[in-house]
Please model this.
Amino acid sequence: MKRDLYETLGVAKTADEKELKSAFRKLAMKYHPDKNPGDAEAEKTFKEISLAYEVLKDPQKRAAYDRYGHAAFEQGGMGNGGAGMGGAAGGFSDIFEDIFGEMMGGGRQRRSSGGRERGADLRYNMEISLEEAYSGKTAQIRVPTSITCDVCTGSGAKPGTKPTTCATCQGSGRVRAAQGFFSIERTCPTCHGRGQIIADPCVKCHGQGRITEERSLSVNIPAGIEDGTRIRLSGEGEAGLRGGPAGDLYIFLSVKPHEFYQRDGADLYCSVPISMTTAALGGKFDVATLDGTKSRVSVPEGTQAGKQFRLKGKGMPVLRSSQVGDLYIQIQIETPQKLTKRQRELLKEFEELSSKENNPESAGFFSRMKDFFDIE
Ligand SMILES: [Zn+2]
Ligand SMILES: [Zn+2]
Model:
């Protein structure tokens, strides 16, 4: 007694195309012979679900099955062998390509007639300085890449000869082999999937249709570019195989850490240490900026550590815009070290003369803390 096809797939009789496909997909993943090597039971189940799906996905076959049941496909049942299931040599691999081809992104799209293949994408890592990111630049890079062979213009065949269609696969690049009940599609062993045989290969490229060379490319790095940016140069990747389209070249940009500036988007930060006396008495200093000029920073009397001064428009340019970020100067105060006897005396004297108004934060801190925690 044969199992009901809907039951086999675990779907309702009213299941639509999508439900059928998804039910088949799930079961096929589970019972696929590749996942269950040597398991005869799994293979049998896989066979059943494949058959069920083969019938139900086809509206005509499905209608016949709904009407006549399995009898519709038994010898003579339909009269027309075209609708039959037995010995349908070509059928199954087609389902697999339908289902698994799209699921796994299949190698199929890469192939086209004549064994043409899209060239690989290339990656080029480029490191630039913050100054270069600031002003932008045109970089000359040398890319080792394969390009279309000039002798055979990419055909791979010796000039004057032509590639011939592979007799084993008739040019499809794939052959079907029976494996038990199934027919499995494989890459053609004669032409290795190209679909063509090159009897007289081009001497320069040995039949590949492309040769490896170093090319010089000019790359425009726009001002304001950020670390981690990827620039795509369409068609500048590896040449295609046997006349296929070229891949793309991707430039992965990294911006070197800067000695003095840290970057946050379009803003720059610079930590500047000043002496304790400059912080107390006030003073001035100059900072060099990325535009090649310098900016004067005035530190007022009584400047505290962590104080920030903003230099407007002295940051990084914003990519493809006229905006410019700011530069923030962050003040650090350096406590004097290795004091001489005289310096020590002066500081002691200074300390004796100090009042709460000189150091409102530190003078009040411990008494506020004591009060807060209610300790002695
Ligand atoms: Zn060639
Ligand atoms: Zn072949």
